[in-house]
From TrEMBL:
<dbReference type="InterPro" id="IPR050982">
    <property type="entry name" value="Auxin_biosynth/cation_transpt"/>
</dbReference>
<keyword id="KW-0073">Auxin biosynthesis</keyword>
<comment type="similarity">
    <text>Belongs to the FMO family.</text>
</comment>
<keyword id="KW-0560">Oxidoreductase</keyword>
<dbReference type="InterPro" id="IPR036188">
    <property type="entry name" value="FAD/NAD-bd_sf"/>
</dbReference>
<dbReference type="InterPro" id="IPR000960">
    <property type="entry name" value="Flavin_mOase"/>
</dbReference>
<dbReference type="Pfam" id="PF13738">
    <property type="entry name" value="Pyr_redox_3"/>
</dbReference>
<keyword id="KW-0521">NADP</keyword>
<dbReference type="GO" id="GO:0103075">
    <property type="term" value="F:indole-3-pyruvate monooxygenase activity"/>
</dbReference>
<dbReference type="GO" id="GO:0009851">
    <property type="term" value="P:auxin biosynthetic process"/>
</dbReference>
<dbReference type="GO" id="GO:0050661">
    <property type="term" value="F:NADP binding"/>
</dbReference>
<protein>
    <recommendedName>
        <fullName>indole-3-pyruvate monooxygenase</fullName>
        <ecNumber>1.14.13.168</ecNumber>
    </recommendedName>
</protein>
<comment type="pathway">
    <text>Plant hormone metabolism; auxin biosynthesis.</text>
</comment>
<keyword id="KW-0274">FAD</keyword>
<dbReference type="GO" id="GO:0050660">
    <property type="term" value="F:flavin adenine dinucleotide binding"/>
</dbReference>
<keyword id="KW-0285">Flavoprotein</keyword>
Length: 380
């Protein structure tokens, strides 16, 4: 006979989203269990983040629920090591005890309960289910014609740590978001010859511009903040079109983020390397010439590369094990409901870490979920 572990809430994922939700629930004396497929908390940051990674938002916007403010000695923009240490101290402070190496293989609702099964053969039952596996579930690599015959190294950014192994080599970075642009810089700093694929428009700003905008958003409507920040950026980066980088014409950086989920590129030195010619900007890939290291681009040019690095992000993996995903997610594994009600589904299922609003969004969603669950319990 199978052993069933019963609790009030099962939380899937022990990243910042799952940990924050657990603390909010525990503060309301709601029993909860976190299931984590890896053997550590915050595995994305510990196992799949490059060495030079820093949070792009200032530390005052990166507080987890009920934690004290960051220390004055903490850098304004925390490094990967600073942030993971912060998460570890959070786990210790609130005595959170996730169950590690618990890969969820199936979760389904029936008879008024959620049944969660793991690869270890364990079964958990709960009234409520919180999916905190996050939007960065599995690495995404787009299909490229001829890629299977590429003669060099191919790598997703989740496996990249630093550019040391690429010194003296030609590396093509596919993806011009924050990861792609920063990895391009890191490659350049390690003596590699980096090229970055740019296919469409995006906003480029500095950390200072984002910090200023975030401060202003407390008091001023977003459209006015966008106007100010976009004007600053268009002046500071006015020469980027000649390098093949254009900004969206209709929306400012904050509105663009809130409507499309696309974060502006926060320049940490990459643009200067592009201006100096140390990093090249190239158009979209047409195909890889079969059996070679040659890449053909959309403009008809070809170039030879030793490596292709995909900084193309991640995809949600929840739909692969969540049998009743339509209660809360669309076909892409993202919330089907529009913000600000994205976190709540049907039949007692919730999601946290899918708002694309960073740690601040996680904290707000975790609080909202715990308050909603206690209200449901009180009704019964």
């Amino acid at each position: 006979m199978e052993t069933v572990h019963r609790t009030t809430v099962v939380i899937i994922g022990a990243g910042p989203a799952g940990l924050a939700t657990s603390v909010c629930l525990s503060k309301l004396a709601i029993a909860n269990t976190i299931l984590e497929k890896e053997n550590v908390t915050c595995s994305l940051w510990k196992h799949r983040a490059y060495d030079r990674l820093r949070l792009h938002l200032a530390k005052q916007y990166c507080n987890l629920p009920f934690a004290p403010p960051h220390a004055a000695s903490t850098p304004t923009f925390m490094s990967k090591d600073h942030f993971t240490a912060y998460v570890e101290s959070y786990v210790s402070r609130f005595q959170i005890e996730p169950r590690f190496d618990c890969l969820v293989t199936r979760a389904a609702h029936g008879m008024g309960k959620w049944r969660v099964e793991t690869a270890r053969g364990e079964v958990y039952e709960a009234e409520f289910l919180v999916v905190a596996a996050g939007e960065n579930g599995v690495p995404f690599v787009p299909e490229v014609d001829g890629m299977e015959g590429f003669g060099g190294v191919t790598l997703h950014s989740s496996g990249y740590r630093n550019g040391e192994e690429f010194k003296g080599k030609d590396v093509l970075v596919v993806g011009c978001g924050n990861s792609g642009m920063e990895i391009g810089l890191d490659l350049c700093n390690h003596g590699a010859r980096a090229s970055i694929v740019v296919r469409g428009p995006f906003h480029v700003v500095t950390r200072g511009m984002v910090h200023l905008g975030m401060q202003m958003l407390k008091y001023v409507k977003m459209k006015y903040v966008d106007s100010i920040v976009a004007s600053m950026a268009s002046f500071y980066y006015r020469d980027l079109p000649k390098y093949g980088i254009h900004r969206p014409a209709l929306q400012g950086p904050f509105t663009h983020k809130s409507t499309t989920g696309k974060t502006p590129v926060i320049d940490v030195g990459t643009v200067d390397r592009i201006r100096s010619g140390q990093i090249q900007v190239v158009p979209g890939i047409e195909r890889v010439l079969k059996g070679t290291n040659e890449v053909e681009f959309a403009d008809g040019t070809t170039r030879r590369f030793h490596a292709i690095l995909f900084a193309t992000g991640y995809r949600s993996s929840a739909n692969s094990w969540l049998e009743d995903f339509s209660y809360i997610f669309n076909g892409e594994g993202m919330p089907k409901n529009e913000m600000p009600n994205h976190w709540k589904g049907e039949h007692g299922i919730y999601c946290v870490g899918y708002s694309m609003m960073g740690i601040n969004g996680i904290s707000k969603d975790a609080a909202a979920i715990s308050e909603d669950i206690i209200s449901q319990i009180m009704k019964n």
